[in-house]
Write a structure and sequence with these properties.
Layout: H1 3-20, E1 47-52, H2 67-76, E2 81-84, E3 87-90, E4 104-111, E5 116-118, E6 124-126, E7 132-133, E8 145-146, E9 153-163, H3 178-190, H4 195-198, E10 200-207, E11 210-215, H5 234-237, H6 249-252, E12 261-267, E13 271-276, E14 292-297, H7 301-310, E15 315-316, H8 326-334, E16 339-353, H9 377-386, H10 389-396, H11 426-435, E17 438-439, E18 450-451, E19 464-470, H12 473-487, E20 492-498, H13 500-503, E21 519-525, H14 559-569, H15 576-592, E22 595-607, E23 611-612, E24 631-632
Length: 638
C-alpha cells in the first residue's frame, strides 16, 4: 500500500476503531469526572443542660442516695419498676407478678419451734412458745394465736417470681441477668439488715432471667412487686469487698447501669457529662432523644433562674429550691419564656395534736401534768374548723396545693369517699369549744377562752397553747397565719421555732419524738402505693419500749383504727380485706383527727420553652424519671 494513502486513511481507521471499542460505564453511586457526590451532612448532636441544686457526694445506688444523686441515677438506670400515679409499671420486667397471673403464690407451710417466721406484729422472730402468730388464712387480729411451743402449725408464705426482659444490657455491653439481682440482694444483706431482707427467707435465680423471692412464713407484703432487688453488676463489682463498695470509685463515682445514659466525665465542683448508652434496650424506639447531657450544679435559685433565661440551663431540676421563685416563674410562663411545672406530691404537712404526751403514760395528774387539752375530739375538730387552710394554700403555696381530708391523697385509687370535711367555719368551731367546756367568759373573742366544768382541768384555765415547728420560711409563714386564725376562736397560741436538729431530736429529750408538745407542725411522706395507716397506730407511738422510734407522735390510740389498719396490711391486693380495711381506717382518722392535715407539698421544676417531654409525676421523687423521652424542639404541647 502506498504509504501516503495509508497515512491519509489512518485518521478514519482510528475513528472506526474508537467507535467499536466498548464504553465503560461508571459503577452506580460513584462519581464520574463531571459529577461529584454530595456528602450527606451529619446532623449536629442534640445536647441538653440539666441544672441540679447540689452536687452529689456519691452515686452509690444502695442505702438511700441523696436527692441529687437520685436525679443522676435516673439517667443511668431505668426502673426496674416505676410507681406512676400510685400504680406500678414494669420497666425491665416482662410483667408485674400478681396472684391472678400466678407469678405470686400464697402457699401454706408447716412451721415448728426454731423456724424463722414473722409474728403477728410483723416482726421477724424465731418461733418459740409465747410468740403471737397468724395461722394460715388469718387476716384479722381476732384470729391471732399464741404459739404453744409444741404443735406443728400452718402459716401463709408468699412466693413471688420475677422475669427479666431478655434484651437488657449494662452500658458496657454485658447482659443484665437474674444473678445480678441476686448479687444486689447479697449486697443489701451484707450492708446491714433492711426491712425486706430481714423478712426474706430465700432469694435466688431460677435461670438467667428469672428470680424467685420467698418471704418468711407470716410475712404478707402487699407491695410484693417491690420485692425484686434492683440489679447490680456482679461482673464489674464482684471483686470489690462489699463493705468497700460505698467508697469505691467504680461503684460510687462511675457506676454503670442499663438506662439511657452513661457517665462520660465528672469535673468535681462544676459539672458532669453523660452520653447515650449504646446498649439501651429502647434504642430501637429512637430513645433517648438527646445525645449528650451536661449536668451543672447550681445551688442558688436566683442564679438558676438567670441561667434558665440565658440558656445556661435548659432544665431546672426539683432539687433546686424554687419556692420563692413561684411568682416570677408564673409570669415568665405566661409570657412564653419558660415552662413552669408543678405537681402535688404525697408528702403531707400536718399539725399534730399532743393527744397523749409521754408524761401521761404513768397516768394523768392534773396537779403536775399540763392540762389535757386534746382528749376531747371536739377540741381537735374545733381547731381544724378555726384554721383557714385554703387561705394558707393560696397565700403561701400560690394555690398550687389542696387541703387533704385524710392521710390518703384524693387522687389515690384507695381514697375513701364521703369523709368528713373541715372547711373554715369559725361559728361552728366556737360552738364546739363551748360544748367542750371552753367558755368565752368575757365576750371578747381575741382573749383566750377558759375552762369551766371540764373533768381534770381546773376552772379558769386559759386555752393557751404552744406551737412547735422548724425555722423553715414556709413553716414560719404558715404558723403566723394559724396563730391569727385560732385567735379569732379564742385560742391563744405561742410559736417556738426550733432548729431542725432540736425539733427532730430523739426522744425522750426531743420534743416531737419525746411526745412533749401541745401543737407541732411537720411533714411525712408516702412511699409506694399502700396507704400509710400505720402512721397513727398504737404500735407507732414513740416510747421507751421502742427506743422512742415511731410516727404516731400524737400518742393517739384507738383499737378500732388499729384493727382496720392491721387487717388491711395483712391482706394482699385482690383480697376483700385489703381495700375495706384501708377505707375504714380513713373514716376513723377523719372523724377523730389525731393530726390535722394542712396541705400536700408541691414539687417544682422549670424548663426552657423548647424542651419537650419533661414532666413531673407525684409518686416519683425525681423530675428526670423519663429523661429518655425529653427532646428539644421548636414547639411543645402543654
Amino acid at each position: 500500500m502506498n504509504h501516503r494513502i495509508f497515512l491519509a486513511f489512518l485518521p478514519v481507521l482510528l475513528a472506526v476503531m474508537a467507535a467499536c471499542r466498548p464504553v465503560e460505564v461508571p459503577p452506580t453511586g460513584l462519581p464520574t469526572e463531571t459529577t461529584k457526590a454530595t456528602p450527606t451532612p451529619t446532623p449536629p448532636p442534640i445536647e441538653l443542660t440539666v441544672c441540679l441544686g447540689n452536687e452529689p457526694v456519691s452515686l452509690y445506688p444502695v442505702n438511700n442516695p441523696s436527692a441529687s444523686a437520685r436525679s443522676i441515677l435516673a439517667m443511668i438506670y431505668d426502673g426496674p419498676v416505676d410507681v406512676l400515679d400510685y400504680r406500678y409499671e414494669p420497666v425491665i420486667l416482662e410483667r408485674l407478678p400478681s396472684l391472678e397471673n400466678g407469678d405470686a403464690q400464697l402457699v401454706r407451710v408447716s412451721v415448728y419451734t426454731g423456724d424463722e417466721v414473722v409474728d403477728a406484729e410483723g416482726t421477724p422472730v424465731t418461733l418459740k412458745k409465747g410468740v403471737r402468730i397468724r395461722p394460715a388464712g388469718c387476716r384479722h387480729p381476732d384470729c391471732v394465736v399464741e404459739y404453744d411451743g409444741k404443735t406443728e402449725m400452718e402459716m401463709d408464705q408468699l412466693i413471688v417470681t420475677f422475669r427479666l426482659k431478655p434484651n437488657i444490657r449494662w452500658s458496657d455491653g454485658k447482659p443484665v441477668t437474674a444473678d445480678d439481682s441476686v448479687y444486689a440482694y447479697e449486697v443489701a444483706k451484707a450492708s446491714g439488715v433492711s426491712y425486706l431482707v430481714a423478712r426474706t427467707q430465700t432469694y435466688e435465680a431460677a435461670d438467667d432471667l428469672t428470680v424467685q423471692w420467698w418471704g418468711r412464713p407470716g410475712f404478707l407484703e402487699p407491695n410484693f412487686v417491690l420485692s425484686f432487688f434492683s440489679p447490680l453488676p456482679r461482673h464489674a463489682w464482684g471483686a470489690i469487698p462489699i463493705d468497700q463498695l460505698p467508697d469505691s470509685v467504680q461503684s460510687s463515682l462511675q457506676p454503670i447501669g442499663w438506662g439511657p445514659y452513661q457517665i462520660a466525665a465528672w469535673e468535681h465542683g462544676d459539672h458532669m457529662v453523660l452520653v447515650k448508652n449504646p446498649y439501651y434496650f429502647r434504642a430501637a424506639e429512637g430513645l433517648p432523644q438527646v445525645d449528650k447531657i451536661t449536668v451543672r450544679f447550681v445551688p442558688n435559685p436566683e442564679q438558676a433562674m438567670a441561667e434558665l433565661l440565658s440558656g445556661g440551663c435548659d432544665i431546672l431540676d426539683p432539687t433546686i429550691p424554687l419556692d420563692e421563685q413561684v411568682g416570677a416563674l408564673r409570669t415568665l410562663a405566661t409570657e412564653g419564656k419558660v415552662r413552669f411545672l408543678t405537681v402535688e406530691v404525697p408528702v403531707m404537712e400536718q399539725l399534730a395534736f399532743g393527744v397523749r404526751p409521754a408524761a401521761y403514760d404513768n397516768g394523768y395528774n392534773p396537779q403536775f401534768d399540763r392540762p389535757d387539752y386534746f382528749s376531747d375530739v371536739r377540741v381537735r375538730r374545733a381547731i381544724a374548723l378555726c384554721i383557714d387552710r385554703q387561705a394558707i394554700i393560696e397565700t403561701v403555696l400560690y394555690g398550687l396545693s389542696s387541703a387533704p381530708d385524710g392521710f390518703v391523697p384524693e387522687w389515690h385509687p384507695f381514697h375513701a369517699r364521703g369523709l368528713p370535711e373541715y372547711r373554715y367555719d369559725v361559728t361552728t368551731a366556737q360552738a364546739l369549744l363551748q360544748q367542750a367546756g371552753w367558755i368565752d367568759s368575757d365576750g371578747d373573742p381575741t382573749t383566750p377562752r377558759r375552762a369551766l366544768g371540764i373533768p381534770g382541768i381546773a376552772n379558769g384555765t386559759p386555752l393557751s397553747l404552744t406551737y412547735l415547728t422548724t425555722q423553715a420560711t414556709q413553716r414560719v409563714q404558715v404558723a403566723q397565719m394559724i396563730v391569727e386564725s385560732l385567735a379569732a376562736c379564742g385560742i391563744q397560741v405561742k410559736v417556738e421555732y426550733l432548729p431542725t436538729e432540736a425539733f427532730y431530736a430523739v426522744g425522750p429529750e426531743g420534743p416531737l419524738f419525746g411526745r412533749n408538745f401541745e401543737l407541732a407542725a411537720f411533714a411525712m411522706g408516702i412511699s409506694g402505693v399502700q396507704p400509710p395507716c400505720e402512721w397513727y397506730t398504737s404500735a407507732e407511738i414513740p416510747r421507751p419500749e421502742n427506743r422512742w422510734i415511731g410516727t404516731n407522735v400524737s400518742g393517739y390510740s384507738n383499737p378500732a383504727f388499729d384493727v382496720a389498719c392491721a387487717t388491711a396490711r395483712q391482706a394482699l391486693p385482690g383480697e376483700a380485706e385489703y381495700l375495706v380495711g384501708f377505707q375504714q381506717a380513713q373514716q376513723i382518722f377523719a372523724e377523730e383527727l389525731p393530726v390535722l392535715p394542712l396541705y400536700w407539698r408541691v414539687r417544682l421544676a422549670a424548663a426552657r420553652p423548647e424542651i419537650c417531654g419533661f414532666a413531673l409525676n407525684p409518686t416519683i421523687a425525681t423530675g428526670l424519671w423519663n429523661i429518655e423521652n425529653v427532646s428539644v424542639g421548636e414547639e411543645c404541647s402543654p
